[in-house]
């Protein structure tokens, strides 16, 4: 007669090890995404003097990949909507974003309604996207 309990214990240990490895991989992926956003947020917004072309889709994609929940709309601007429990929390977030915008000299379009904030970002002087738009998006996420 075989001892099934030792076989089950070994199988359970293997399953636990696999689950731990998957959890570690997920944590590392989350940490990498967080590190990328932190890296982008640590950059400075560079004032655009105009006369430069907007970023191409190939230039935008790696920057967008560093952000969570942001979308490029019509190749023209970044957009994200945030939800809050109430108007007061949404307004407080808008005020924090306003402080970031002033500090960086780069001002997004902010839309505030009860429990929601929508942010749209683009560089007015070129009517399109620059790296600074992605930097500002990451900075907005940091003050959430």
Which helices and strands appear, and what pairs or packs with what?
Elements: H1 4-41, H2 57-64, E1 71-73, E2 77-83, H3 87-104, E3 109-113, E4 116-121, H4 131-142
Antiparallel strand pairs: 1-2, 2-4, 3-4
What does this entry show, briefly?
By secondary structure, the chain is of the alpha+beta class. The chain has helices spanning 4-41, 57-64, 87-104, 131-142, and strands spanning 71-73, 77-83, 109-113, 116-121.
Description:
This protein is α+β, with helices and mostly antiparallel strands and about 140 residues long. Helices cover about 55% and strands about 15% of the residues. Strands 1-2-4-3 form a four-stranded antiparallel β-sheet, with helices on one face. A hairpin with a 3-residue loop joins strand 1 and strand 2. Helix 1 (about 5-40) crosses helix 4. The longest helix is centred in the N-terminal third of the chain and has 38 residues, at about 5-40. The N and C termini lie far apart (about 60 Å).
């Amino acid at each position: 007669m075989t001892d099934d309990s030792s076989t089950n214990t070994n199988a359970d240990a293997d399953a636990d090890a696999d689950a731990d490895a998957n959890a570690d991989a997920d944590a590392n992926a989350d940490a990498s995404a967080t590190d990328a956003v932190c890296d982008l947020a640590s950059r400075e917004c560079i004032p655009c003097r105009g006369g430069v072309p907007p970023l191409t889709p190939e230039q935008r994609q790696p920057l967008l990949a560093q952000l969570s929940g942001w979308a490029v709309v019509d190749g023209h601007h970044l957009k994200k909507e945030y939800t809050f429990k109430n108007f007061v929390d949404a307004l407080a977030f808008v005020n924090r974003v306003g402080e970031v915008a002033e500090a960086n000299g780069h001002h997004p379009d902010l839309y505030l309604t009860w429990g929601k904030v929508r942010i749209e970002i683009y560089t007015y002087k070129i009517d399109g996207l620059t790296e600074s738009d992605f930097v500002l998006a990451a900075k907005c996420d940091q003050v959430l």
